[in-house]
Amino acid sequence: MSHRDHLPQLDGGLFLTDGGLETELIFHDGLDLPAFAAFPLLRDAEGTERLRRYYARYAQLARERGLGLVLESPTWRASARWAAEIGISDPELDTLNRAAIALLEEIRDAYADRAPIVISGCIGPQDDAYDPGTTLSAAAAQDYHATQIASFRDTAADTVSAMTLTYADEAVGIARAATAAGLPLVLSFTVETDGRLPSGQPLGEAIEQVDEATAFAPAYYMINCAHPTHFEAVLEDGEPWVERVRALRANASTCSHAELDEATELDEGDPADLGARYAALAGRLPQLTVLGGCCGTDHRHVKEIRDAWLGASV
Q1: How far is the C-alpha of 203 from the C-alpha of 235, rounded, in Å?
Q2: Using CA atoms, how far apart are residues 272 and 184, in angstroms rounded to an integer?
Q3: Which of 88, 188, 222, 226 is a Cys-bridge partner for 230, taking CB atoms 3.0 to 4.6 Å apart?
Q4: Is the distance from CB of 26 to CB of 56 less than 8 angstroms?
Q5: Which positions of the chain have pLDDT values less than 70?
Q6: What is the pLDDT, as a whole number, of residue 22?
């Protein structure tokens, strides 16, 4: 069932999503992921099966409690700049983006018996997600990201999610590309330990800038790749932009991006503490409906987040 015309997570029910795919593959499975890219696993049956097992864990977590699920494709690095770095041609890149959505279709067919499952084509920034060396204008970002979005357009993807964005102009370009392709969009910014984007812009100002420049094109916003202690203080009561945040994928670690970049071991944090921190944000983020994790998290963290959130709402 397609949800492209109306995303069910906008109706207020609770949805889960996955955790830190790439950190799990690297630190738990010992896989080498050049350019931090998971999508090349789709090149063969063994890699595809590993991804299938990964998603099935989260599908089961949602099914156990009758919750919705947002399946994010393993394509955060599947755009032209990163593909070129690891020797993948443009035609193969298009094939792998489409294969990623086909895999998520299989998961949806196997688990969508109690609540809706939304398939999201995941895209990432054109440059480094912590400290970009170059930035794009909105027009250049639209042109760059339009190619990957076009790959998703002709698949079963219900939406596009752009994650770990570090500055507003790239987000504006992505929003315009998604609008041109006729796909709903979720935009996710990351923040530093002070709650500001890596560009230095306050989170609220970035959301307001994108909404103003695109006539409120994103269906909603997400915060990802930051610990709750990094942004909870900037969630100001009564600010309209806070109402636009409907999804959260926090890191397990309280470390800064610079510290995580240098880390040689995985900081898994405390899953129970992370779950409690999510539940404590319910009053600060009243529209929050999609819960998952980012770097350092896995199904254990998402289970704790699920249970803490449901327990607090009883």
Answers
A1: 9
A2: 33
A3: 226
A4: no
A5: 314
A6: 97
The DSSP letter of residue 68 is E
Q: Tokens 């864990």 correspond to what residue?
A: 57
Domains and CATH numbers, the chain: 8-313 (3.20.20.330)
**3-class DSSP state for residue 295?**
coil
For residue 43, give the amino acid letter. Answer: R
3-state secondary structure 35-64: HHCCHHHHHCHHHHHHHHHHHHHHHHHHHH
Three-state DSSP state, 156: coil
| Burial classification of residue 212, based on how many CB atoms lie within 10 Å of its CB (0-12 exposed, 13-18 middle, 19 or more buried) | exposed
**Beta bridge partner(s), residue 220:** 186
In the structure encoding, which two tokens stand for residue 249, read together? Answer: 């994928």
CA dist 307 to 14, 67, 109, 196, 276, Å?
12, 12, 25, 29, 9
Query: Could you give the CA distance from residue 192 to residue 205 in angstroms, rounded to a whole number?
Result: 15
pLDDT at 314: 56
Report the alpha-carbon distance of residue 67 to residue 60 in Å, rounded: 10
pLDDT in tens, 37-69: 999 999 999 999 999 999 999 999 999 999 999
| For the chain, the helix, strand and coil percentages under 3-state DSSP, each to the nearest 5 | 50, 15, 40
One-letter amino acid identity for 205? E
User: Half-sphere exposure of 57 toward its Cβ, with a 13 Å CA cutoff?
Assistant: 17
Write 266-272 long-range contacts (CB < 8 A, 24+). Answer: 266/23, 266/26, 266/27, 266/28, 266/296, 267/296, 268/296, 268/297, 268/298, 268/301, 269/227, 269/296, 269/297, 269/301, 271/297, 271/300, 271/301, 271/303, 271/304, 272/304, 272/308
Give me the pLDDT at residue 85, please. 97
Q: What is the pTM of this model?
A: 0.97
* pLDDT of the residue at 265: 85
